[in-house]
Each structure stands twice: as structure tokens, then as C-alpha cells.
Specification:
mainly alpha; 6 helices
Length: about 150
């Protein structure tokens, strides 16, 4: 187990050492924005978005990515797209198109959340959880990343 941990730490340091040589990518502000969008997207797929009360049995349960598979898939997919777009710094046009499509994907995520919360006749949402703000953070950081990419062109 200790060998595995040492190997992982060595791999992480070599990853950062490689990118410290390639200052072209790390010094751009859109890299930070897209990294924050990645974190917010993954958290939005995993965090509970609210508490649901069943009208018939009055049972309470959390609502989020673990309870609804499309929400989990859209959140993780959006995070992977945002992270992958960081490495397309040599092709700004492609990077910009991928970031735009990721903004649309986050909008679809919000629509799916609204569908699950509003159009489910058996349940009603009681209290929104703090996880409900992460889709907005992901969208804002994604848009800021888009503006940073446009500024480089």
C-alpha cells in the first residue's frame, strides 16, 4: 500500500513539473476558470440538491446525483469536458466551441433538475440544499473561461 501511495505522489509531482515547463498553459486565467468549473461540475453531480418529501407517506429523502442517474451522468460529463478543454490551449477555436457546448450541457443539467423537482407529482421539494448553487457556479466559471479564451484570440 505504501508503494502505491508513493507512486501516486510521484506521478502527481511529475504531472505538475511537466506543466511548470509549459508555462504557456498554466499562466492563462481561463485555465483557473475551467478548473473551477470542473470542480463545480463534479460537485453538482454528486452533492444533494434538495430534500424531497413524499406527499403520500411524508417520508423525507435527499435529492441529488446518487438518486437520479441522469443528474450524476450530466454532472460528471460536464466536469470531464471542462477539464479536457483546458488541454486544448493550442487550438483556441476548438477550445471555445467545446466550452460553449459545455455551457449548453450545464443548461441541460439545470433543466433536468427542474424536471425532476417540479414535474414529479408524488413529491415536493422542501428545503434546497447548498448543492443547488453549484450548477450556477459551474456556468459562471464556464462563461468566464469563455471570455478568457476570446481575449487570447
Amino acid at each position: 500500500m505504501a508503494k502505491f501511495i508513493r507512486k501516486c505522489i510521484k506521478m502527481i509531482f511529475s504531472f505538475f513539473f511537466y506543466f511548470s515547463k509549459n508555462q504557456k498553459m498554466i499562466q492563462r486565467i481561463q485555465t483557473i476558470y475551467l478548473l473551477l468549473a470542473t470542480i463545480a461540475s463534479i460537485v453538482m453531480g454528486l452533492a444533494p440538491l434538495g430534500t424531497i418529501i413524499n406527499k403520500e407517506t411524508m417520508d423525507q429523502s435527499l435529492f441529488g446525483g446518487q438518486q437520479a442517474l441522469p443528474i450524476l451522468i450530466l454532472g460528471i460529463l460536464s466536469g470531464c469536458i471542462a477539464f479536457g478543454s483546458i488541454f486544448l490551449f493550442n487550438n483556441r477555436k476548438l477550445q471555445l466551441n467545446i466550452v460553449r457546448s459545455n455551457a449548453v450541457l450545464i443548461g441541460i443539467f439545470m433543466a433536468v433538475c427542474i424536471y425532476y423537482l417540479v414535474f414529479n407529482s408524488v413529491t415536493k421539494i422542501d428545503l434546497p440544499r447548498p448543492g443547488i448553487v453549484f450548477p450556477f457556479f459551474a456556468l459562471v466559471f464556464n462563461i468566464l473561461g469563455m471570455k478568457g479564451i476570446k481575449a487570447d484570440e
